[in-house]
């Protein structure tokens, strides 16, 4: 079957990446339909001129007209509210650090939207992500691989770390083999209206937001104490970091549970649930030689613990844990042993970190070769072999 008989729905966001993705699909002869998703209605917490959805929708429509492809807009705000926004509030309320962009891809773009695309007769869904999909046949079964984008500075595979084999079988990433500057050159050559448009920032489909204002829609302001913990605190000498036995792994992976007597009260905050591990801004406390960083939060007692300087021991851990319930295998055909090293990252654009994966009855431990800064409960960790993302999980 030629590409002409294959229908592809492309998620046109109004940005340059999805615009060029649509152009390349048309060029390759696919039957292309452009669809814009509107998932957010409240502009009160959005920083002005940062991802205004009306302008994005208009730009997407202009690109579709330029490429002579059908275009329509759909409203998924109810699904987005239920699956992403409510999840965010609940996570912050519990003192966790969510990643809504990863959930947005799993739950909205490649689930709800993919099903809509299929209802429109699509064989595939295409987006402007900087990543790639390849496949191989193994034991008479097709195995799909999620590969990092060619442009390492723009690689977005981490944001897709929760996709399944079924989802990967239905997606196309047309710009995955291109560098960002190549994408802009193509857009300019084709006179696409988005050629010089800045990349969107902030929450998936929401834009750049004032996070405290956003969270205060549901989470109340509640004054509490800021406690500064010194680098010399006795707790940092209590753990043997050379003992890699299963019995010690849990101790090593658990973040230290601070109590108010571990430091000195140096200020006040408006709610522990507004802060996350590694956060520097928003503390409004001065008078220290080096910047203060959040090293712990206690949402039950409404206390924020901070440490001075990037090298503070409370900011670093070598080991993290993901429970079996929160593990996701993109490749479930791979066999593991507890002595093999992989590459892993705990945030977007973080350079890959060498880590040993240790499987236990309760879950998976990541034993990093070098200490990792600002590991927070609720974040996603993804692991790779060479350029392939093969699994992920929510940090406990």
Describe the structure.
The chain is α/β, with parallel strands linked by helices and 396 residues long. It has 2 domains: 213 residues, 3-Layer(aba) Sandwich (Rossmann fold); 177 residues, Translation factors (Elongation Factor Tu (Ef-tu), domain 3, Beta Barrel), CATH 2.40.30.10. The strands form 3 sheets. Strands 5, 6, 12, 13, 14, 15, 16, 17 and 18 form a 9-stranded antiparallel sheet that branches. Helix 1 packs parallel to helix 2, helix 1 packs across helix 6 and helix 3 runs antiparallel to helix 4. The longest helix has 20 residues.
Count of structural domains: 2
Overall mean pLDDT stands at 91
Q: In which range does the helix fraction lie?
A: 10-25%
Total helical segments:
8
Through-space gap between termini:
47 Å
**The level-1 CATH class of the largest domain:** Alpha Beta
CATH architecture of the largest domain: 3-Layer(aba) Sandwich
- Count the E strands: 18
Task: Describe the secondary structure blueprint for this structure.
Elements: E1 7-11, H1 16-27, E2 31-38, H2 53-67, E3 71-75, H3 77-93, H4 100-119, E4 124-126, E5 131-138, E6 141-148, H5 165-168, E7 171-172, H6 180-189, H7 211-215, E8 224-228, H8 246-253, E9 264-269, E10 292-298, E11 303-308, E12 316-323, E13 327-329, E14 341-345, E15 353-359, E16 363-373, E17 380-385, E18 388-394
Parallel strand pairs: 1-2, 1-4, 2-3, 4-7, 8-11
Antiparallel strand pairs: 5-6, 6-18, 8-9, 10-11, 12-16, 13-18, 14-15, 14-17, 15-16, 17-18
Helix pairs in contact: 1-2, 1-6, 3-4
